[in-house]
Write a structure and sequence with these properties.
The protein has helices at 8-24, 31-47, 58-80, 88-95, 104-130, 137-168, 172-177, 181-211, 215-245, 247-260. The protein is mainly α.
């Protein structure tokens, strides 16, 4: 398995391999790469298989997918080896893997938070610098267009993600979220609103990294990203405790909603 995927094809292969191996061990760390692989596969279909001609820089997006995945693989390797990742959001996410009763949707959200709110700006920055486009306003506009277009990929992937959480992992939250089509549309809209907001903010973090005048400025940006993503992770983790305590209530709510439907 490539630890440093060069493009979206290698990233997808790595994620599918990781997810399969973790799933064989009944390791809850399998949830995030399974969800992540759904999105990566759809990006591959769009930019490599040519199913979506709206991307302006498909090769750039493919390379970004490889770089982006590399950050996740580094964090996972640290977790598997019992080391801290040095990134609060990832450390909180992996700590929850040892907590009994954590809903699969919470595992997915914790991983998504760390990967978007910390890793993504770094991946964008590295990819832009590698392409020599840090000062190229025209290319930056094209990259921003494609970055935003990935939101449509996320929206299209939501039904498949819900199905994985519900059927493969028996997630009670996913069952409630998909009890009727109207409920699923509403929950998907809320989730996508959150993700779009995160991804918008990531582009601001990228611009701050590009504008950094030295290592001290760059470290300040990274520290801010670490604090913010860590705060979100702690909030999700605290919410997970409340969900575990109220699990009988949520199960009852799911049953009542199903009967009402």
């Amino acid at each position: 398995m490539p630890r440093r995927p060069s493009d979206v094809v290698e990233a997808l292969a790595a994620l599918e391999t990781v997810a399969a191996r973790l799933r064989e061990r009944n390791d809850p760390r399998a949830v995030f790469p399974e969800v992540y692989a759904v999105i990566t596969r759809r990006v591959k279909e769009a930019v490599v298989d040519g199913r979506d001609g709206r991307f302006l820089e498909p090769a750039w997006i493919s390379r970004l997918a490889g770089i982006f995945c590399e950050y996740y693989l580094e964090a996972l390797a640290a977790s598997l080896e019992g080391r801290t990742t040095g990134i609060e959001a990832w450390d909180v996410a992996f700590q929850c893997n040892g907590t009994q009763g954590t809903a699969a949707a919470v595992h997915a959200l914790l991983g998504i938070n760390a990967h978007i709110n910390y890793d993504l700006a770094l991946g964008l920055y590295r990819n832009i610098v590698q392409h020599g486009a840090a000062q190229d306003a025209r290319l930056l506009r094209r990259y921003r267009h494609d970055h935003d277009l990935v939101n449509d990929v996320l929206a299209a992937a939501m039904p498949e993600i819900f199905e994985i959480l519900r059927e493969r992992h028996g997630c009670p939250l996913a069952r409630i979220a998909t009890v009727t089509r109207d409920v699923q549309r509403t929950v998907s809209s809320v989730a996508l609103f959150l993700l779009r907001g995160w991804r918008d903010r990531v582009w601001g973090d990228l611009l701050s990294l590009l504008a950094a005048r030295g290592e001290a400025d760059r470290r300040a940006v990274l520290a801010r990203m670490n604090r913010r993503s860590g705060k979100i992770a702690r909030t999700l983790s605290m919410g997970n405790g409340a969900l575990r305590a109220g699990e009988p209530l949520f199960r009852g709510a799911a049953l009542r909603l199903a009967l009402a439907a």
